[in-house]
Amino acid sequence: MKITSYTFRVRVRDPVDDEHAERLYEAFDEEIAIESGPRGHYVGFDRDAPSFVDAAVDAIDVLITLGFEPIAVEDELVSMADIAERTGRSRQSVSLLASGRRGPGSFPPPAAGNVRSPLWHWDEVATWFQTTAPEGTIGEDRPAAIAAINGALANRRLARDHPDYLSRIGRLAG
Questions:
Q1: Helix H or strand E segment including 32
Q2: Residues 137-169, buried b or exposed e (16+ Cβ, 10 A)?
Q3: What is the mean pLDDT of residues 86-114?
Q4: What is the C-alpha separation between 82 and 98, in angstroms, rounded?
Q5: Band of pLDDT at residue 79, cut at 50, 70 and 90
């Protein structure tokens, strides 16, 4: 079974204080990053696993066990060099796609960074490659996995906070 490294962030409900941070560092074998700010509270991961789903779900299981409430999985921001590496293209090729000078256009806009160092959400870029550039198809469907995991996390909160809603909308699942 092939093991790959996956980078992602999990947004948690509450800020991570020093005591909770220590517990997180002890619980995870790999490097983690803790971020808190006006846009939310996150635990960042770089995990080795057979699949993105395995990496994310295993991390979320540990967070729940430690008493954190995970809100959502967010994919990381990637540079042009990261996109080139993940898609097997040259950096110049990605630059041409991003600028619209090559390919079908409609490349996702940068989410952060600046003119010289733009950053994109990987899930948006992967979706773009899968839907508009079949020759550059990404091996995994990370956007669908993130949507499914985030849906499960939302259902978890809904079952706790509004069990009557969950029973009424449950029929939509299948």
A1: strand 32-37
A2: ebeebbbebbeebbeebeeeeeeeeeeeebeee
A3: 90
A4: 13
A5: very high
Domains held by the chain: number: 2
Rounded-to-integer distance, Cα 157 and Cα 174, Å? 20
Asked if residues 118 and 80 have their Cβ atoms less than 8 Å apart, the reply is yes
23 and 44 fall within a common domain: yes
Could you give the CA distance from residue 30 to residue 26 in angstroms, rounded to a whole number? 10
* pTM, rounded to two decimals: 0.74
**105 and 116 together in one domain:** yes
Cross-strand pairs, 5: 48
Structural domain for 57, as ranges: 4-75+141-173
pLDDT tens across 108-139, in order?
A: 999 888 888 999 988 888 888 888 865 655 66
Instruction: Clarify whether residues 17 and 67 are in a common domain.
Output: yes
